[in-house]
Amino acid sequence: MMAKFQRFGGAMFTPVVFFVFSGIVVGLTSVFLNADIMGGIAAAGTPWTVFWTVVDTGGWTVFNNMEVLFVIGLPLGLADHGKERAALEAFVLYMTFNNFVNSILSMFGKTFGVNLASTSETSGLKVIAGVKTLDTGVVGAILIAAVVVYLHNKFFDKKLPDWLGVFQGSAFVAMIGFFAMLPMALIFCWGWPYFQRGVTNIQQFLTTAGDLGVFIYIFLEKALLPVGLHHFIYAPFQYGPAIVNGGTTLYWMKHITVFAASKQSLISLYPQGGFALQGLSNIFGVPGIAAAFYATAKPENRTKLLALIIPGVMTSVFAGITEPFDYTFLFIAPALFFLHAFLAACLATTMYVFGVTGEFCGGLIDFIAKNYIPMWANHWTTYVVQWAIGLVFMMIYFLIFRFLILKFDLPTPGRAEGVVNMFSKADFKAKQAAGKSDDGKQHSAFYDSAAAYVEFLGGVDNIASVTNCFTRLRVEVNDPQLVAPDQNFMAVGASGVVRKGTAVQVIVGTDVTNVREEVDDIMENGEGVTTTQTVHESQKVEVKDTATETTLFTPVKGQFMNLEDVPDDVFSKKMVGEGFAMNPEDGNIFAGVEGTVMTVFPTKHALGIHTENGAEVMIHLGLDTVELNGDPFDVKVKEGDQVHKDTPVATMDLKKVQAAGKNPVVLMIITNAADYMLGNFKINQGDVVNAEVPALEISKVKTK
Question: Residue ranges of the PTS EIIB type-1 domain (predicted)?
Answer without folding.
Answer: 447-529
